[in-house]
Amino acid sequence: MNRYALVLAAGKGTRMKTEIPKVAFPILKKPIIEYIIGHFEKAGIDEKYLVVGYKKEVVQDIIKDRAKYVVQEEQLGTGHAALQAAPILSKLEGNTFIMPGDVPLIWYKEILRIFETHEENGNDLTVVTAIYDDPEGYGRIIRNQQGQITHIVEEKDANSYEKEIKEINTGIYVVNNQKFFNLLDQLDKNNAKGEYYITDMIALMRKEYKVGTYTVKNPNVAMGVNDLYQVSLAEKYLRQYINKEHMVNGVNMLNPDTITIGHNVIIEPGVTIYPNTTITGNTVIKAGAIIGPNTEIHNSRIHSNAHIRHSLVYDSEVGENTTVGPFAHLREHAVIGANNRIGNFVEVKKSTTGDDTKASHLAYIGDAEVGSHVNFGCGTITVNYDGKTKHKTKIGDYAFIGCNTNLIAPIEIGDNVFIAAGSTVTKNVPSNGFAIARSRQVTKSDYAKYLIKPIELKEENK
Ligand code: UD1
Ligand code: CA
């Protein structure tokens, strides 16, 4: 049987009270809709259709050609959203997994189990349900005395007896394409919201076809995200789930409730992560690395035995055995070699360093190509910006840059160069050279009394 997917993602998400469309809202820095499309890709569903409407360009910009699009110009309800895809899907033989665009945690194995149950039971419509202690806001599943589902009642349309029902509609269905999509135009909007409810299809389908249910074992996977509180809940479940996977896989996490690891992050066994650390994007952390506390890493590669604490690392790479922090900032493709030390209050931007290089305190290295065994004295700055353009600094191997040096780019410093502390270097320094660029000291004896009130020196210090 061919398998298709249809995601309803045209709504604004009014309850979010945010400007961006709900399905584009990020959870662990990744848009909700991207989770869903990712689950379908993993489940091997080839044809994915996305119903878009409100700010559709934002959604399309995220998903690009990973799905096909159907536009719902006016948001008249979930049934109306699905109807927009009926001309296409009613002609495709097979089953379609229909789901709302705001259920990010329904992972691919559950999707496959739902498809399998639908096919094995020979259903024409399978409604995916969950049991919630607090079912408020969800549609309730109504069953007859034989235990068969008869219909779904939305929260707004439910009476007090129905509101007590804890079995809810997850908004997820698998349907037989021809049967379901050819009946869809029979929906009406006689309900509290005055919308076309896809949930009314249960009663319609039951008249002629086989309707069954599938109940998820872990209700968290089916939670809908309607407001920012539910965003925080989804994030919490996802965080716990991801952290558990890593810990079982040999990653040591101290106080894991304060550690946030994104969905695409790869962490090798033997890594230790300290509290208040967030690792997101396409980050890879190799064995033996120690990360945190209080560290943010995004889209970066951290090699074996690197040690990063109290620091920010964005779109960068940290070599083997390198230490970063406390309070360092690597960004925009800072590529740090092995055995480096990037210490207190050091910022590195769009620069590379060779192995065994050190910038231990208070330095800015930007747009630089730095060799190995270089030593940056405290307070060294690559002066890369003239107000209009960024310029490059090149530094060879074994250069020793004295404290408080300004390297005015564009500039090239050769191998084995020594630069005296306090220099403002404006010209290239060839290999093996020594440069000093500061005014000579003038010392006037017995002159300080003109500038400050002298204190009485003790006899023995005169
Ligand atoms: C829906 C279900 C409810 C279920 C819940 C599960 C209906 C009528 N109700 O309620 O039974 O318990 O999901 O999470 O289906 N959308 C469109 N076009 C529209 C309206 C909605 O594309 O015209 C999309 C939204 O972008 C959203 C999804 O459909 O991604 C669900 O809409 P939402 O308003 O969140 O439905 P719920 O009230 O949560
Ligand atoms: Ca919803």
Q: Care to describe what's here?
A:
With 462 residues, the protein is of the alpha/beta class. The protein contains nine helices and 39 strands. The strands form seven sheets. The chain has a 16-stranded parallel sheet that branches. It has a seven-stranded mixed sheet with strand order 5-4-1-6-10-7-11. A five-stranded parallel sheet has the order 14-17-20-23-26, with no helix packed on it. Helix 2 links the parallel strand 4 and strand 5. The protein is elongated, with a radius of gyration of 31 Å. The site of uridine-diphosphate-N-acetylglucosamine (UD1) has 30 residues, from strand 1, helix 3 and strand 10. The site of calcium ion (CA) has 4 residues, from loops.
Class by alpha and beta content: alpha/beta
Shape: elongated
Rg calculated over all Cα atoms: 31 Å
SS elements, strand count: 39
> Low-confidence spans: pLDDT under 50, at least 5 residues?
none
Summarize model confidence as the mean pLDDT: 96
Task: Give me the number of helical elements.
Answer: 9
Helix fraction, binned, reads: 10-25%
Assess the beta-strand content as a share of residues: 25-35%
The biggest beta sheet is recorded as: 16 strands, parallel
Question: What small molecules accompany the polymer chains?
Answer: uridine-diphosphate-N-acetylglucosamine, calcium ion
Distance between the termini: 101 Å
